[in-house]
């Protein structure tokens, strides 16, 4: 793909898929006997969600939420707006939120409070990636795919200016090296 060679490999496709299979098994165990509503956060979590639900052996429904955070492309401002709401109420449902990445935690803190106000029976959070070094708000994360360093990553749903979501792996843009001496 044009421009994709600028990215360094961080997590190859086979490791992503192996980890998702493990997470799916864990979620299947934890929710035995329950009906799940899996809520995906658009657009970044789409790839992760569609792979994850195929590894969950439970009856489940899927719904989606669009969020937009004010601020520039690579910094979260914490001021979040719902651009597309869930299609159905979640009152008395077991809800699993599926996120692509938790960076400062500000987006998820907003989302969690918003969803809890709708009185689900339970609310758990699953994220593919977590960058703990940037935490500004602690949000309980029930399932974490990979904990990563503070790097701007793309691929497997994550974009840079709306591009590179379709890379099958997760890559990062290396910072320019400081000149020697
Ligand atoms: P937070 O509110 O936790 O700081 O940020 C959450 C959102 O910021 C994510 O859902 C994602 O859209 C964006 N984000 C944070 N870090 C990265 C990153 O490394 N790469 C990309 N593509 N988006 C990121």
Can you put this structure into words, describing what you see?
With 181 residues, the chain is an alpha/beta fold. It has one domain (11-68, 80-170): Rossmann fold, CATH 3.40.50. It is built from 3 helices and 9 strands. It has a 6-stranded mixed beta sheet. A 3-stranded antiparallel beta sheet has the order 1-9-8. Helix 1 crosses helix 2 (46-53). It is globular and about 60 Å long. The N and C termini lie far apart (35 Å). The mean pLDDT is 92. The structure holds guanosine-5'-monophosphate. Guanosine-5'-monophosphate is lined by residues 44, 76, 100-108, 152-154, 158-160.
Radius of gyration: 17 Å
CATH class: Alpha Beta
Q: Determine the CATH topology.
A: Rossmann fold
Secondary structure tally: strands = 9
Cα separation of the termini: 35 Å
Task: Please report the number of helical segments.
Answer: 3
Tell me roughly what share of residues is in helical segments.
10-25%
- Please list the strands of the largest sheet in the order they lie side by side: 4-3-2-5-6-7
Q: Name the ligand types.
A: guanosine-5'-monophosphate
Which range does the strand content fall in?
A: 25-35%
CATH architecture: 3-Layer(aba) Sandwich
The secondary-structure element order is: EHEHEEEHEEEE
What's the main sheet like?
A: 6 strands, mixed
> Average pLDDT value?
92
- Assembly type of the shown chains? single chain
What is the total number of structural domains? 1
* Computed structural class: alpha/beta
| Low-confidence residue ranges | none
């Amino acid at each position: 793909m044009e421009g994709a060679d600028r990215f360094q490999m961080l997590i190859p496709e086979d490791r992503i898929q192996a980890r998702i299979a493990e997470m799916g098994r864990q979620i299947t165990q934890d929710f035995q006997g329950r009906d799940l509503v899996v809520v995906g956060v658009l657009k970044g979590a789409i790839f992760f969600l569609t792979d994850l639900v195929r590894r969950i052996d439970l009856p489940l429904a899927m719904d989606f939420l669009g969020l937009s955070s004010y601020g520039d492309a690579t910094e979260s401002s914490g001021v979040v707006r719902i651009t597309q709401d869930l299609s159905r109420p979640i009152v008395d449902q077991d809800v699993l939120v599926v996120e692509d990445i938790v960076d400062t935690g500000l987006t998820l803190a907003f989302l969690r409070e918003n969803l809890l106000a709708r009185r689900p029976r339970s609310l758990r959070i699953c994220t593919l990636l977590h960058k703990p070094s940037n935490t500004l708000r602690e949000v309980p994360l029930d399932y974490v795919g990979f904990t990563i360093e503070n790097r701007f990553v793309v691929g497997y749903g994550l974009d840079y200016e709306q591009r590179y979501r379709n890379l099958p792996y997760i890559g990062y843009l290396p910072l320019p090296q400081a000149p020697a001496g």
